[in-house]
Design brief:
three-stranded antiparallel beta sheet; single chain
């Protein structure tokens, strides 16, 4: 299994970001909200997803062979 790189909160640096029903992500520690379309740059070299607990994470994209 490939390691996951969870998105940590910028303002407090102590919590991970979790999905909320509004389509945004909130910090589990301080409650800061981020909008994935406006507030965060996701590395295009990674595949981004939300795990079963709602945490936003990325992992290296699979390399496609010709």
């Amino acid at each position: 299994m490939t390691a996951r790189d969870y998105v940590w909160c910028g303002p407090c640096g102590r919590g991970r970001h979790y999905a909320v029903p509004s389509g945004e992500f909130t910090c589990s520690h301080c409650g800061a909200l981020i909008n994935a379309d406006l507030d965060v740059w996701l590395d295009p070299g990674q595949t981004w997803a939300v795990d079963s607990d709602g945490r936003l994470y990325g992992r290296p994209a699979l390399q496609h062979r010709p």
